[in-house]
Design goal:
Keywords: ATP-binding, Kinase, Nucleotide-binding, Serine/threonine-protein kinase, Transferase. The chain is of the alpha+beta class. The protein is 27% helix and 27% strand. It has helices spanning 21-32, 39-56, 105-112, and strands at residues 9-16, 65-72, 76-82, 115-121, 124-132.
């Protein structure tokens, strides 16, 4: 194999910031990962990250959008959602008590994924969840 050749496959999708686009993002993820034992976990992660982009950033406002990237290799699946920014704060993982009505989404994603990385730029935020394919599906190993 040539040193500049990658065995990873990468897909991208840009969606308008409408609530119905969350189901499109889920379906797109499920279609790409249909043979993977990680498909359900990935679908749930993409659903949560897409909904957060629409609800909490400029992605859900006039002519807003969000972008999904999905990278698959023999070692990992990386799911990224990039929003249009405009939120007063960056996304953060919080552990909420049982009575909380909001703020559980990224916490849930962090339990399902093996690693979550949040990157902030001038144009928005990218949240990437990584699933390591060498470990059992369904979250962190015990």
């Amino acid at each position: 194999m040539h040193e500049y050749t990658s065995m990873a496959r990468v897909w991208g999708l840009t969606c308008p910031g409408f609530p119905e686009e969350v189901s499109r993002a889920r379906r797109w993820t499920r279609d790409i990962l249909r043979e993977s034992p990680w498909a359900e976990d990935a679908e749930l992660i993409v659903s949560e990250l897409s909904a957060n982009a629409i609800l909490h950033t400029a992605s859900g406002q006039d002519s807003g959008s969000f972008h999904l990237a999905l990278a698959v290799s023999a070692q990992a699946i990386a799911l990224s959602v990039t929003d249009d920014g405009g939120a007063g704060t960056a996304p953060k993982i919080e552990r909420q008590d049982q009575g909380a009505e909001h703020g559980r989404g990224l916490g849930m994603v962090s339990v399902i994924a093996h690693r979550v990385v949040i990157h902030e730029s001038d144009s928005g935020h990218t949240v990437t969840a990584e699933l390591y394919t060498g470990l059992p599906a369904g979250g962190h190993p015990c």
